[in-house]
Structures are given as structure tokens and as C-alpha cells.
Amino acid sequence: MGLRLKFNLVLSVVFLLGLSVSGFISYNLLQQNAREEVLRSAGVMMEAALSMRTYTVDKVRPALRVSADEFLPQGVPAYGATQIMNLLHKKYPDYAYKEATLYPTNPTDRAVEWEADIVNAFRNNEGLRETSGTRMTPSGPSLYLARPLQIKDPACLVCHSTPDAAPPAMVKVYGPSNGFGWKVNEIIGAQVVSVPMSLPIANANRAFYTFMASLAGVFVVLFIILNVMLSMMIIRPIRSMAATADRISVGKLDMPELAESGKDEVALLARSFNRMRRSLEKAIRLIDET
Fold first, then answer.
1. Element spanning 288, H or E
2. Which in 4, 111, 185, 257 has the greatest CB count within 10 A?
3. 3-class DSSP state for residue 177?
4. Spatial separation of the C-alpha atoms in residues 36 and 38, rounded to whole Å
5. Helix (H) or strand (E) holding 147
6. What gap in Å lies between CA 152 and CA 154, rounded to an integer?
7. Are the beta carbons of 106 and 98 closer than 8 angstroms?
8. How many CA atoms does the CB half-sphere of 119 hold within 13 Å?
9. Whole-angstrom distance, CA of residue 110 vs CA of residue 121
10. Residue 166: other Cβ atoms inside 10 A
11. In whole angstroms, what is the distance from residue 82 CA to residue 152 CA?
């Protein structure tokens, strides 16, 4: 096995190891960054919904002029936030916001199976203030961010304690079986924001493939440069020394001396070889004289 082949084998093994480690680290880092990007988007949507709820309570509800036999859902914070986020959902179908409730006033807010699991997780662990995860949808993986909906204001029970205590107009709209029996400090649902991960993941994968291709390209260029340097600085001088040694071994002492320029190991070897050759010539002349 030649020196060049040994060198290239070692270089290839080092490259494959480096490529594997770099690929593993960069892939996981890019995927993590993609998830964090999606999570930030979900957080912005969640804060926007909370701001809409606050605006409804502080600005919209006091401005409504409602008679005793009339019910306007626009004064309900959950209704305002949900309706505005539904407008966003129409333009970006993969982005969704829902106030998923186990026993909602509005049936459209009823939690489906996976949302009910999130609500029950909040109910079973009151110290849990936020949770996130991923799930598969028809359009690809989607990240969800959820926060608990807890009854903190006793005034909410005016509409949600019993049908008899609730405004008749509301009972007329939604019926006597929906959204009652709530209690103070009870977690009755969860605010759930869903954001698609397909685009950030695609961008992360594209960046990963670009990085790996660039790294492979750098290796190819480095491989060529190192082989040229190996050939010019080591293999060619050593082959010249080997050829000269072969000629001298068969008695051809008229070969020119090897070049000794430089201070590297090859130059030192050339000097040593030339000294050995001169010593051999002297020894041969002494033998001939005797």
C-alpha cells in the first residue's frame, strides 16, 4: 500500500467522522432553531389573543348598550378573541386559535380529543401554566402552545353557575345545557394556538443540505490541495531518492546529488543520502587503490 493511498484513506476516515459529527450537531441545532421559531410565532399569537380579550373587557363591553332581553356575544372576551383570530385563520388556514373548553357555552368551543387531553393535564396539575408539543395534521406537523383557562373572576359565575342565574337572553341563544356548573378557580379549558412547522422545517432542511454540500465541497478542494502538496513535497523527492539509490546499488555512481534546499525533513534526508553516497564513493575508491 503506497504512501499516497494510506494518506488518502486516513484523510477520508477523518472526513467521514467529521462530516458525521458536524451533520448530527448541525441537523439537531437547525431543527431546534426551527421549533423555537415556531414557538415564538405561537407565543405572539397567544399574546395577541390575550390582548384582544383585555380590549373586549376594557373597551368593547362598557360601550355596548344592551337591553335586559338582549344578549350580544361581542361583549364576551372569548368570543371577540376567537372571531378575530378566525379572520387570520381564513387567510392562513394552518394557523389556528381556539379556546377549547370541556363544557362550553358555545358548542363550537368544545374541546376535541387531543385538546381535552391538554385541558385535563392542566386540571391534574394546577402548577402547570403552559405546555407545548407537536402533532400531525393533513398539511404536515403542527406545533401547539396551550395555556389554561381558569375562572378567577367570580363575576363570570353570573353567566356560568346555573341556567336560572344566567341572563335569559344568553340561555335563549345557547340553551340551558351549555357552559354551566363552573366554579371559581376551576380550570374549564385551555387557550390553544396551532402553528404549522412545515415551512420552518423545510428551511432548516434546506440550510442543512446547503451546509453539508459546502462542507463536502471544502473537503474535495482540501483533498486535492493536500494531494498536490503531498506529491510535490514528499512523494516526488522520495521517489527520486529511491531511483538514485537503485542506480547506485548497481554501480552507477555518476548520478548527480539530490537537491538539499530547505530545512524540512525531506531536505535533511537528502543531505544524509548525499553524505552516505559520498562516503560510499570514498570507500569504493579506497578498495580500488588497494
1. helix 265-289
2. 111
3. coil
4. 5
5. strand 140-150
6. 6
7. no
8. 24
9. 16
10. 20
11. 20
CA–CA gap between residue 232 and residue 234 (Å, rounded): 6
> Over 90: is that where the pLDDT of 74 sits?
no
Q: What is the mean pLDDT of residues 133-157?
A: 86
**CA 122 to chain centroid:** 27
pTM, rounded to two decimals: 0.70
Together in a domain, 39 and 91 = yes
Domain hosting residue 234, numbered range:
3-10+205-289
Q: Which amino acid is at 273?
A: F
| 8 Å CB contact between 240 and 259 | no
Angle formed by the axes of helices 198-230 and 3-55, nearest 10°? 160
Distance, in Å, from the CA atom of 271 to the CA atom of 76, rounded to the nearest integer, reads 95
Look at residue 285 in the predicted model and tell me its pLDDT. 72
Nearest alpha-carbon partner for 75 in 83, 227, 131: 83
Residue with cell 548525499: 274
Q: Compute the half-sphere exposure of residue 141: CA atoms within 13 Å on the CB side of its CA.
A: 13
What's the number of domains the chain is made of?
2
Instruction: Give the domain CATH number at 233.
Output: 1.10.8.500
